[in-house]
Amino acid sequence: MESLIWIGALLSVVGLAGIIWCIVDVSRARRAGLDDDTLRARLQKAVAFNLGAFGISALGLIMVVMGLILS
């Protein structure tokens, strides 16, 4: 079950990296001074990616907990 813990930890790190990328992307978009429609479209893409990153991170944390329980 140790491999389940490490795979889960890796997934959590990948999800965290995705969340950080979303933060950086949105801050760059806000500083770029885009018009409302362009900014809205870019933020919608970032929100979708952010939800996916949170899902991957949550899945990784579930895997870590399950690995610890089964150990």
What is the secondary structure topology, with strand pairs?
Elements: H1 2-31, H2 36-70
Helix pairs in contact: 1-2
| Strand-pairing-aware structural class | mainly alpha
Helix residue percentage: over 70%
Please summarize the sheet with the most strands: none
* pLDDT averaged residue by residue: 93
Beta-strand residue percentage: under 5%
**How many structural domains are formed by the residues?**
1
Number of strands: 0
Distance between the termini: 6 Å
The count of helical stretches stands at 2
Give the C-alpha Rg.
16 Å
Run of helices and strands: HH
Shape descriptor: rod-shaped
Show unreliable segments: none
Describe the structure in your own words.
This protein is mainly α and 71 residues long. It is 92% helix and 0% strand. It contains 2 helices and no strands. α1 packs antiparallel against α2. The model has no long low-confidence stretch (mean pLDDT 93).
